Amino acid sequence: MRKQLMKGNEAIIKSAILAGCRGFYGYPITPASEITEAAALYMPKAGGVFVQAESEVAAINMLYGAAAAGVRAMTASSGPGISLMQEGISHMAGAELPCVIADITRGGPGLGNIGSEQGDYHQVVKGGGHGNYRTIVLAPYSVQEMADLTALAFELADRYRNPVFVLADGFVGQMMEPVEFPQKAIQAPMPPWAVAGTAATRGNLITSLHMGCDDLEAHVLALEAKYKLAEQREARAEEWCAEDAEIVLVGYGIVGRILKAVTAEARAGGLPVGVLRPITLYPFPIVHFQRLASRARVFVVVEMSSGQLLDDVRLALNGACPVEFLSRVGGNVPSHDEVLRFVRVQALRFIGEEQMAHV
User: Fold this and answer.
1) Fold of 238-356
2) Hey, where are the domains in the chain?
3) Distance between CA atoms of 299 and 277, rounded to whole angstroms?
4) What is the pLDDT of residues 144-158, one digit of tens each?
């Protein structure tokens, strides 16, 4: 099959349809608007439903209804819109409803700007709504991964009966690259727990309400067991030139691409640099960090936020290795030269001038 040249935002919708998605409920916002536009174009052609809701609050509750009826469905937004959806996301997690939510991040807080940033990490990875719940979070760094990880998101949503985020910065959503899609589309079966308006599903109940304290505790513990299982089975990361790395660069999204380019140049100059790129932000790929810490002198986190990913890296390493941090915010992206200079400073600090003279 020939590759198609498209934006990351469009790749999400084409992949979603091939993955069996037949419902999209959303409200446009920069830099995610092309997702809604592509859904309006392609979803009806696939026999699905597209609704531009009156608000993000309405969109997430429409998504609740579609998921409860057993439909593979999704929405998309950016930071301010995701903030408005948080109550509905908590309800869906509590009701164990599978869905996919694309968050194409922009600058914040508040209205911020429409520049690319990674400041949505906490509200998505940590669960920005109320109660004890988690959402699985996938972080693509290319347009091909926007397609591949969207398909995976629907699979994981059904497997764990839970909302799944595709979290991408504005650069990945807006960039254009060639994409290859699977030749066969998935026909998603009707799940047995759904409320489908038939006699067979009349006894099914979809709710997040558990009035008894013991009942709610049992439900929350069951959810927690499900999340622990996902942590054991679903954590994913890419290691690039990392097996012998003494300086491990950590970043996701567009930053991961910058780190690979920096690593290639640093390696050409003899510096033992590698990249660890988290693909699942939850579950966090802790094992990858712990394994590389046995050799590394320092981990360098590069992030387009004020240190949200940084917190999880420090927790994963648990003091096993020093962690240094380079940050740009406000829609600014760390440049290749800026990161390379920072890496060279860390090399002098942690490897030393005498050893550097031999590389």
Assistant:
1) Rossmann fold (3.40.50)
2) 4-233, 238-356
3) 12
4) 999 999 999 999 999
